[in-house]
Design a protein that fits this description.
Order of helices and strands: EEEHHEHEHEEEHHHHEHEHH
Mean pLDDT: 96
Radius of gyration: 20 Å
CATH architecture of the largest domain: 2-Layer Sandwich
Low-confidence stretches: none
Helix content: 40-55%
Oligomer: single chain
CATH class of the largest domain: Alpha Beta
CATH superfamily of the largest domain: ATPase, nucleotide binding domain
Structural class: alpha/beta
Bound molecules: 5'-O-[(R)-(carboxyoxy)(hydroxy)phosphoryl]adenosine, zinc ion
Strand order of the largest sheet: 3-2-1-4-5
Strand content: 15-25%
Distance between the termini: 23 Å
Length: about 325
């Protein structure tokens, strides 16, 4: 089935989102209710607060997505939902809503891995040539995924500790920037220049794995030491040097991945941190060295949203990969 209308649900973290997607590559609606303001005062996502907001928002978001798409229920071929990984309480709200919708309207159910969703978000703007490698960089993930075909995923690199976005947010916090700090770091670094020498953990270890906790701790220690000495930290310069370290690490790992898998035709870059302007520019420049299409997720689709889940679900619909109504959520789940 190449023609399809899918209604997709995403609630794995702090966004309640429902989307209607046509043929896996056209967004008819993509409603995202963000909870970021509720979590900001805690400096991070509070799981129970997230679950409660999902319950409050879900029905409104479903109604809004169907109305904006201007479809009737009979047009829908499948109900898709993020089945993991993510916050279990948050996942279960979306799964229960999707299962109820599928049951009441007698529509087949499709379960989608959250990372597959981020990866397939590029389908709205590009036709992907395979084999591909996807770099998924977000608040919860830092992964390199090799794809021989559109429905084949092999994790070839992963973080050994913090996710890249998590490190961005913690560094931003010590610089007293608002939560989530990633976009503020991005802006601040534009005014900075090189001043601080920062480490690049695991950069030269010969693997495709990442580590951001040592870099994060180096920045936090530097700030605390400056404070103790009464020295002023130049936040823009620190943000600049932090970006340089992150970019060096990402470029090095991508270069290594291309050496291991020279047949790669596309490099997909997705996830919340893929909105970062410095990372986008640097990866764009370094990809010119290879005979490679670099496909960035559209900035508005980098963060968590249900349209990306609909894009990934279209491939499962073509392959007749459905779930029973006993589908459960999984906080940890292999892609
Ligand atoms: O994909 P996402 O919305 O949620 C997860 O699945 O984790 O990613 C959120 C992360 C946060 O850590 C946020 O600070 C980061 O993406 N982020 C950025 C930028 N915009 C969002 N990090 C760096 N630069 C940005 N411009
Ligand atoms: Zn995500």
């Amino acid at each position: 089935m190449s023609e399809s209308i899918i209604i997709a649900f995403e609630s794995s973290c702090d966004e309640t989102s429902v989307s209607v997607v046509k043929n896996g590559n056209e967004i008819l609606s993509n409603v995202v209710a963000s909870q970021v303001e509720s979590h900001a005062r805690f400096g991070g996502v509070v799981p129970e607060v997230a679950s409660r907001h999902h319950v409050d928002n879900m029905l409104y978001v479903i109604d809004e997505a169907i109305q904006q798409a201007n479809i009737s229920i009979e047009d829908i071929d499948a109900v898709a939902v993020t089945k993991g990984p993510g916050l279990i309480g948050a996942l279960l709200i979306g799964i229960q809503a999707a299962k109820s919708f599928a049951f009441v309207h007698n529509i087949p159910l499709i379960g989608v891995h959250h990372i597959a969703g981020h990866i397939h978000s590029v389908q709205f703007d590009y036709k992907v040539d395979y084999p591909a490698i996807a770099l998924v960089i977000s608040g919860g993930h830092t992964e390199l995924v090799r794809m021989a075909r559109q429905d084949h995923y092999e994790v070839i690199g992963d973080t050994q500790d913090d996710a890249i976005g998590e490190a961005f947010d913690k560094v931003a916090r010590v610089l007293k920037l608002p939560y989530p700090g990633g976009p503020h770091m991005d802006r601040l670094a534009k005014e900075g220049r090189h001043r601080y020498d920062l480490p690049r953990p695991l950069m030269n270890d010969g693997t495709l794995n990442f580590s951001f906790s040592g870099l994060k701790s180096a920045v936090i220690n530097l700030v605390h030491n400056c404070e103790q000495r009464g020295d002023k930290v130049i936040a823009s310069d620190l943000a600049y040097d932090y970006h340089q370290a992150v970019i060096d690490i990402l470029q090095k790992k991508i270069n290594l991945a291309m050496e291991h898998y020279p047949e790669t035709k596309s490099l997909i870059v997705a996830g919340g941190v893929a909105q970062n302007s410095h990372i986008r520019q640097a990866l764009m420049e370094s990809s010119e060295r290879y005979d490679l299409n670099i496909l960035f997720s559209r900035p508005s689709l980098c963060g968590d949203n249900a349209a990306m889940i609909g894009a990934a679900a279209h491939i499962k619909l073509i392959n007749n990969q459905f779930e029973s109504l006993s589908l459960n959520g999984q906080s940890q789940l292999n892609i």
